[in-house]
Design brief:
Chain lengths: 204, 675
């Protein structure tokens, strides 16, 4: 009986330590804000109409599957640890390379949009896009779409690596990729297709 | 003579052969007059693979026989109820051994959808042999019939058009041994991973099971469009060939072997004749999988329409490379051999080839001649010429090279100096090693004869500068997408010199190249620098450098720059009013010149030293000058022999890079007030 309190403390310690590992070293909220700014610009939202970049509210994710790293533990920790650290840590997304990728993706988006709209292409769980329904693309357009998808994925891969590198943490690349993967979906209009973590396609 | 019996009847509860079964089979031999007898066969249910069920089957044979060994039927008429196609009726003849080890059935042509189909099947202890002859079989009908076999590819839709089929299939039990025949398509369409629109074609084929599959086929695509993915993945891309045939048919012939795992492919011969685009003969031995391992490949190709050849046959395989968005015109011809994934021999001929990179990184016009590469010790000679070229914004003029290749290296044995803008690139040494491989390396030593700085800075989209640029380039190496200069680039500029050291450009033709360099600047003549330039006249010399320079996507992200009048400079130090004003632009307006008031009536001033420094970091410059003040720094210090004297100070210590660049743009767009 005397050990019960110690065990509880140990469990709490393990729980908190595990969470800190995620949040202290990767500024998830700042990354979401940064991702949202880039994504909204690429999607063609007017910057002046953008709400101040804030971390996604749980409601934002009600329309798609919550991914594992957005679990209860991390949300609890975000509540327990006043977001001071996350909010203070800004992500630098203004390097020339990031601007170039963003401009290139924004320019390409108008060409991609019809294929998002008709479900030919969808957003995968790795922050990339893929041709999910070839039936929706005529033969004449097949290679154009393949080219657009390949170029977009090259830009996206380079963007994730560059954001991590520009912020002095190349090891953040996969966290940034995961953040973007969620935010591409969250910011997408209804009707577009996305892939959940099990690889199943769903329509937003 | 009267028969003792007028009818013989045999009832069998069930007959089975492999997946074929019949229930409640009744065979009746009905004797008429004379020697003739009719045969009636019926079954309540006949099941044929894969899932065809016929009920209430009845066959009436004009001539029949029933012995203890077998049943025979000639000129039979059958009626049955099919689960999907309703009542069917047709003519047949058959024989069947009652011990079940052999039989034969021939079905005459019957209506199948909008077309007709006939078939025959023979089986014995050695196996079975079936034939199908279909005429104008609708693809939708075929889909319905074949889908239960599990061989119709999934996730396809919108089938249209029809096919003629004449084929024989041999096998034993469920194993397929040999398929051969002809398939002719009439304006077919389907949509899936592969797709066709209005495609008319014909093909002869012969497929044998032989330690895998031995496949021979030849045919032509006469009209329509076809998209085919060969099923390989390159990077993140699954390339596909999109063909649109309008005028002359595309002809092909293939002879290949695939092992049982479908991973080892021996393409003994692939011939393609795509009129107006290319002809190709290909042999490949390769291992398919996540990475394609080419043991051996021989390619002989003539592309009469290089543009269409690139977009149709080449571009889909280059989408994950730097050559994904070229615009090409002209013609080319090549023979290449790859062994163990390495290019061993290349014989590439160009005929007025033009290539422009859609991303603006390079272009070449009027390329003629040949490029030959060999791994053999006996040298191969070739030569190339071009009418024009360019890398990024730098235009390169016409050029000509003679090349010699052996041991996978290319040496340039003769060259003509290449015009670069209004100057010349004089090449002293030029060689390429590991040509065509991943570790291909290009090395150039050379020098630049005078290029006007106005042309160069205009081409680069920088503020226009005057003067000329000359220089030596030692040990320029391009490999693995990176460009490195081992030696120094020595530029003669404005009667001084500029030395570029440690120049490295990573991912030169990539999405966002990164440039690193250190630049030392020695005693530039400011009068020459500013004399033909709208900055305003400054007399004197300036030295310093731009160190730890880092550009990303050709935009600076870091440097430590400092330029100042050398301590020992004995030249005349004069600065014009306009130059003083423009120093204000550079400082984003944070400059106070003690030339206001009555001093501003002068057009020139004397100065002691002039200097400015900037450490660019995080989008801002930490500014400095030739001295510090409590509020900032001194850009121009008092001094000089003759009055009026001037001092220019900057306030604050930093300015954003954007504001600094805007300031420079403002200066370069101003018209000079005097010279």
């Amino acid at each position: 009986m005397n050990y019960t309190r110690e065990i509880r403390l140990l469990v709490l310690l393990i729980f908190v330590t595990g969470c800190i590992t995620v949040n202290v070293y990767f500024p998830a909220a700042a990354a979401e804000q940064a991702a949202d700014r880039i994504i909204k610009e690429v999607y063609g939202d007017k910057l002046e109409n953008m709400p101040p970049a804030t971390p996604a509210q749980p409601d934002d994710q009600s329309s798609y599957e919550t991914l594992p790293e957005q679990g209860v533990a991390s949300r609890l920790l975000e509540f327990l640890v006043p977001a001071a650290q996350a909010q203070e840590a800004n992500m630098d997304i203004s390097t020339p390379a990031i601007n170039k990728f963003k401009a290139s993706m924004t320019q390409r988006h108008t060409q991609l949009q019809p294929y998002y709209d008709n479900g030919a292409i969808g957003m995968d769980s790795k922050g990339l896009i893929t041709l999910r329904d070839p039936k929706a693309v005529s033969i004449k357009e097949r290679n154009t779409v393949n080219q657009l998808v390949a170029a977009e994925n090259q830009d996206r891969n380079a963007l994730y690596a560059e954001i991590a590198s520009a912020n002095g943490h190349p090891e953040w690349e996969s966290d940034i990729r995961n953040t973007f993967a969620r935010r591409w979906i969250a910011n997408a209009p209804g009707g577009w297709y996305f892939q959940d973590t099990s690889g199943n396609w769903k329509q937003k | 003579m009267a028969h003792a019996v007028d009818q013989m009847k045999l009832n069998l509860d069930r007959i089975e052969y492999g997946d074929i079964s019949a229930d409640n089979v009744a065979v009746a031999l009905i004797f008429g007059h004379g020697e003739s007898a009719t045969l009636r066969i019926s079954a309540t249910r006949l099941s044929l693979p894969p899932a065809h069920i016929f009920e209430q089957l009845e066959i009436n044979c004009k001539e029949g026989s029933l012995t203890a060994i077998q049943i025979k039927c000639r000129e039979g008429i059958y009626h049955a109820q099919h689960q999907d196609h309703g009542k069917i009726t047709g003519r047949l003849s058959l024989s069947y051994r009652l011990d079940g080890i052999a039989g034969e059935i021939v079905l005459d042509s019957i209506t199948a959808g909008d077309g007709t189909i006939a078939g025959d099947l023979k089986f014995n202890a050695d196996g079975w042999d079936a034939g199908i002859q279909g005429n104008k079989l609708a693809l939708t009908w075929l889909h319905k019939m074949i889908e239960p076999l599990g061989v119709w590819p999934s996730d396809y839709s919108d089938e249209s058009g029809s096919v003629d089929v004449d084929m024989r299939i041999q096998g034993r039990h469920a194993d397929l041994h040999h398929v051969q025949g002809i398939i002719r398509t009439h304006a077919i369409g389907f949509y899936g991973v592969n797709a066709a629109e209005n495609l008319s074609s014909d093909m002869n084929f012969d497929v044998k099971a032989l330690e895998g599959w031995d496949i021979k086929a030849e045919g032509n695509l006469g009209n329509g469009a076809l998209y085919v993915e060969p099923g390989i993945t390159l990077g993140t891309v699954r390339p596909g060939i999109a063909l649109e045939i309008t005028d002359q048919p595309l002809r092909f012939a293939i002879d290949m072997h695939l092992d049982e795992s479908l991973q080892q492919v021996n393409l003994r011969q692939l011939d393609i004749d795509h009129p107006g685009v290319m002809t190709a003969q290909v042999q490949v031995e390769a291992e398919l999988g996540e990475e394609i391992n080419i043991h051996m490949a021989d390619v002989a190709l003539t592309a009469t329409g290089a543009g269409k050849f690139y977009t149709t046959w080449l571009q889909p395989f280059l989408l994950d490379t730097q050559f994904s968005a070229l615009e090409i015109a002209g013609a080319l011809e090549t023979k290449a051999r790859i062994t163990a994934n390495e290019l061993r021999h290349l014989d590439l001929h160009f005929d007025d080839l033009h290539a422009y990179d859609g991303n603006g990184r390079f272009h070449i016009a009027g390329l003629e001649g040949a490029l030959r590469v060999t791994d053999a010790a006996i040298p191969l000679q070739s030569s190339l010429s071009w009418r024009g070229a360019g890398i990024y914004r730098i235009d390169i003029g016409a050029g000509k090279l003679a090349l010699e290749s052996r041991n996978q290296a290319i040496n340039i044995t003769h060259w003509e100096n290449v015009p670069v803008l209004d100057g010349l690139l004089q090449i002293d040494a030029f060689n390429i090693t590991s040509a065509g491989r991943k570790d291909m390396t290009v090395k150039i030593d050379g020098s630049l004869t005078p290029i006007s700085m106005a042309d160069f800075t205009r081409a680069m989209g920088w503020p226009i500068m005057s003067g000329v640029l000359t220089g030596a380039i030692d040990g320029l190496t391009y490999s693995h997408s990176n460009l490195v200069v081992d030696g120094l680039i020595n530029l003669g500029l404005f009667d001084g010199n500029v030395i570029v050291r440690n120049l490295r450009i990573e991912d030169l033709f990539g999405l966002a190249p990164a440039l690193y360099a250190d630049i030392d600047i020695h005693r530039l003549d400011l009068e020459l620098l500013t004399g033909h330039f709208s900055f305003g006249k400054i007399q004197g010399r300036i030295s310093g450098g731009v160190h730890k320079l880092e550009l990303q996507a050709w935009q600076p992200v870091y440097f430590e720059a400092a330029l100042a009048t050398p301590e020992d400079d004995k030249t005349r130090h004069r600065i014009s009013q306009q130059a003083v004003d423009n120093l204000g632009y550079i400082g984003g307006g944070a400059v106070n010149a003690l030339s206001n008031g009555f001093l501003s009536i002068f057009k020139e001033y004397s100065y002691g030293r002039l200097g400015i420094s900037c450490r660019l970091y995080n989008g801002s410059c930490e500014m400095g000058g030739v001295g510090d003040t409590p509020e900032g720094f001194i850009i121009v210090s008092r001094g000089g022999l003759l009055p009026p004297w001037i001092e220019v100070k900057g306030t604050g210590h930093s300015i954003t890079w954007i504001a600094l660049v805007e300031g420079l743009k403002t200066i370069s767009s101003n018209q000079p007030e005097f010279k």
